Structure formats: C-alpha cells, structure tokens
Amino acid sequence: MEYLENWYKHQTEFMQEFGSSEEVFEQELNKRVVTTINDTPIVVWDDAVFAILQISDEFEMGAAYHSGFKVILMNTKTWEMKAELRDAIIWHELGHKSLGHESIEQHQELEADQFSLSNGKNMHAVLVHIRAELIRMFAVMGLPQESIDAAMPAIDERIAAVA
Ligand SMILES: [Zn+2]
C-alpha cells in the first residue's frame, strides 16, 4: 500500500501549500489554464490531480470537472493524449458541468458519457483505454485481484452503453 501512503502524504503537503485560502488556490488554478472550451477553463496540474483525484501523473485518465471552481482539471498525460481521446474526456467533463452534477455516481457517469457521445466524441475508444489504465493503476497501487475485478462491472457498463 505504498501508493496510498504516498498519496496521503502528498495530499497533506499539497493542501498545506494553500492553507485555508480558496483565493490562493484559485490563483494557482488560473496560472495553469491551457485553453478554454465551452466557457470552461482547462487546467493542467499534475499535483492537484494526484492530490484531489488520487490519480498519479503516470496514468492517462486523470481528469475531473471541479464544480466549485468551474474548471476541468487534468494531468499532463491526459492533456497530451491524442485529440480524439482527449476531446471525448473533455466533453464527458463538460457533460458533468452542463447536467449540474455535484458527485460521482454511476448514473451520472453514464449521463456524462452520453453527453460526450451526442456531441460527436469517441466515448467508446476512450472508455476502453480508461479500463486498461484502471487495471494498470490498481496493480501499481497493490490492490488484490478481487478488488480490481470488483471495479470492472462499472466501467464495463459504461463501455456497453456507448457501444
Ligand atoms: Zn465522470
């Protein structure tokens, strides 16, 4: 569980940098905006993705819509994916924004997938890729096979829904 121990330590250090000030954190977000899509800034920030999403900078699946700051946060590897895959992820996140999602539940993931799909993005290709990245990440985290197996039905349901 070295991965998780590193994450807790890293998250604590990361958050301490900003104290309790959301203003300071927002300034740091603004410094890292790489583009704006549909009025939504895209922020590429590996440390924030690791601290907030628990996804390290070696995996091509680190992205989320932050409803508090109204930005899409992603890591460098996800940002540098080929455009077809990256755009599908970005439009999935725009779906969460557009649909007013505040949490991560399976039915909301399915809705955001459909939003991306209906905007012409290749959600199927990116979900197949994310499934492989999830398996790779769980192995790096040292999770037992049964935990990995338990996580697969959710992603498989999403893949089937966009096939
Ligand atoms: Zn989502």
Descriptive report:
- This protein is an alpha+beta fold and 163 residues long.
- 63% of the residues lie in helices and 11% in strands.
- It has 8 helices and 4 strands, in the order ααββαββααααα.
- It has helices at residues 2-16, 22-31, 46-53, 76-79, 83-98, 106-118, 123-141, 145-162; strands at 33-37, 40-44, 63-66, 71-74.
- The chain has a 4-stranded mixed β-sheet with strand order 1-2-4-3, with helices on both faces.
- A hairpin with a 2-residue loop joins strand 1 (33-37) and strand 2 (40-44).
- Helix 1 (2-16) packs across helix 3 (46-53), helix 5 crosses helix 6 and helix 6 (106-118) runs parallel beside helix 8.
- The mean pLDDT is 92.
- The chain binds zinc ion.
- Zinc ion is lined by residues 92, 96, 109, 112.
Write the layout of secondary structure elements.
Blueprint (H helix, E strand, L loop, with lengths): L1 H15 L5 H10 L1 E5 L2 E5 L1 H8 L9 E4 L4 E4 L1 H4 L3 H16 L7 H13 L4 H19 L3 H18 L1
Parallel strand pairs: 2-4
Antiparallel strand pairs: 1-2, 3-4
Bound molecules: zinc ion.
Zinc ion binds next to α5 and α6.
